[in-house]
Amino acid sequence: MAATAASASGLGDPVSHESQLRRRQAVISGLAGVCLLAAAVVQAVGTQPKVSELTVELIATNKRVGLEIVGGVINAIGLVGLALTLSFLYRAAKARRPESSPATRITALVGGTLAAIGGVAYAIILSVKSHQFVTQGTQTYLQANHLISNAAVAGLQYAGLIGSLLLAIAFVLVAMNAMRVGLLTKFLGYLGMVAAAASLFLIGSAPALLVEVFWLIAVAYLLVGRWPGGDPRAWVTGQAEPWPTAAEVREQRQRATGRGAPAGKAAASKTPPPRAQPPTKPEGSTRATTPKRKRKSRK
Q: How far is it, in rounded angstroms, from Cα 261 to Cα 267?
């Protein structure tokens, strides 16, 4: 079964091939988590607009042009690292489950690349527009709206959103498939799906970012072989090792409890209790010799 899965995925021996790449991929995954967190910190420092108004936001952006561009580049590195991590887990899962669709890996790589390029390009063009707003014209809302309502600006915004959507879809599928074949623990599998949903529906929020960063660092910790309890069996056998269901876990516990019971107690529990014997009449007793009950006279 392992040989069939390996040949179908294009790998001679998935375990040996993955062992050569796991440490490198652990570095990529950990770096991606650190970069995503660092990008959020960089974008949070410096001058911030006091109110959510377009002219004020452009003036504040012009004062922090360097931070905007640096934060966009660091965030792009984190997104590419996330896409590469998903691609690695996809290939490992496909080696154990050949029917996995290759569209998942393509979606992860295209989504990560699109979101990374769109984010950096948007930071650059927004910095240019904010500088034009501050140095030219009368700095009115109409001028600010005219600068931002540009086809290029809107196109880069949509590119970033589409890339984030594709990356989130691939995130869910890869985390689910890697958990099904036993490469990721149930905790990491479900956490990855939660991180993907949070990053999609809570774009830019701190909780979504923290869950995503934690998942990437946890995966890096697993890939270097430091996960509590050791590597999941699928990394060792090269085959799909599905996690037991709740019913199977309950059955295993019941079997373990039955084997652990004392022998005497178990035997006593299996031996049926003695059946009560009907009372026997004494020898030589007949109906004639049996005393009759006195009947109460009715008045």
A: 10
Distance CA 269, CA 123 (A): 75
Q: What is the pLDDT of residues 94-119, one digit of tens each?
A: 999 999 899 999 999 999 999 999 99
Classify each residue of 192-226 as buried b or exposed e, where b means 16 or more C-beta atoms within 10 Å of its C-beta: bbbbbebbbeeeeeeebbebbbebbbbbbbbbeee
Residue 146 makes CB contacts below 8 A (sequence gap 6+) with: none
- What gap in Å lies between CA 205 and CA 199, rounded to an integer? 8
Angle between helices 65-96 and 206-223 (to 10 degrees): 50
Measured distance CA(61)–CA(64) in Å, rounded:
5
Residue 184, CB-side half-sphere exposure with 13 Å CA sphere: 29
* Across 165-175, average pLDDT: 95
Question: What DSSP state is assigned to residue 64?
Answer: T
Q: What is the pLDDT of residues 208-262, one digit of tens each?
A: 899 999 999 999 999 998 898 888 999 999 998 988 877 777 777 777 776 544 4
